[in-house]
Design goal:
The chain is 48% helix and 10% strand. It is mainly α and 242 residues long. The chain folds into two domains: 44-148, no CATH class; 161-240. The strands form two sheets. A three-stranded antiparallel β-sheet has the order 1-2-3. The protein is elongated and about 95 Å long. The model is unreliable at 5-9 and 33-68 (pLDDT under 50).
Length: 242
């Protein structure tokens, strides 16, 4: 009788150990999964293609989202404490908006490194897409404003010449080169192919403007009409007085 009880006790203890081991393995697996989510690391997760501004980084939707591509081609995304599926179409729309934002943002940073788009809040995948599109739109509008004031190479710029220095002692070859570019593509700021000057020459415009380039970064010369050149002076002067 005592021997039978001992056997049962031993068997029960072994069973408890086995169950405890299974539970421990489940907890460890859950902890590893949570760590991968929190650090956004997944060895099977796709990276942004090389050549992209974020090349080599893990793909993501906003700062609050972690991703891991599933075998079906959908993308489980975590927003807050919820998991939602992003379709391939949603992934494409988000990435297109993000690429547009980054292109404009990089240009803005050349003249306004402190600029940031308005913060956006979202709760769904579609909300994340709309938020990124709104940021892209804000960056594009601001970039156009800077270009219209000739504070950055304009939207009509087609070609340019390397600037030897930040001065205005242009050589005959430089003036001829700027006129050639201007006759073909017009003023880099407004697109007008008539320079509007008495001499009939386009103004060689330094970009970035010399007064806004204290670090001495390499500049290029763009053709500019006389009207845009005069307007640019006021915009540049206003910024240097800040």
């Amino acid at each position: 009788m005592e021997q039978g009880n001992a056997n049962r006790i031993g068997s029960d203890s072994l069973g408890e150990l086995r169950r405890g081991f299974v539970v421990l393995r489940l907890h460890l697996a859950a902890a590893r999964f949570a760590l991968r989510i929190e650090t956004r690391y997944d060895p099977n997760q796709p990276r942004v293609p090389a050549g992209n501004p974020d090349g080599g980084q893990w793909t993501s939707i906003g700062e609050r989202v972690a991703q891991a591509r599933g075998p079906s081609g959908t993308l489980p995304v975590r927003i807050g404490s919820r998991f939602l599926e992003a379709t391939p179409g949603q992934q494409t729309r988000y990435q297109a908006a993000r690429n547009a934002y980054q292109r404009a943002f990089r240009e803005i940073q050349k003249i306004e490194p402190q600029w940031r788009p308005p913060a956006q809040l979202f709760e769904t995948v579609e909300g994340a897409i709309r938020a990124q599109q709104a940021q892209a739109q804000a960056a594009m509008v601001h970039l156009r404003q800077l270009q219209a004031r000739s504070l950055l190479p304009g939207r009509y710029s087609t070609d340019s010449l390397p600037a030897r220095n930040s001065g205005f002692n242009f050589t005959r070859a430089e003036r001829d080169g700027i006129n050639k570019i201007g006759r073909r593509g017009g003023c880099h700021t407004c697109g007008d192919k008539d320079p509007g000057s008495r001499s009939g020459n386009f103004v060689p415009d330094h970009q970035l403007p010399s007064a806004l380039n204290p670090s001495g970064r390499a500049q290029r010369l763009f053709p500019q009409c006389i009207r845009c050149s005069r307007q640019q002076g006021g915009f540049v002067s206003g910024r240097t007085k800040r």
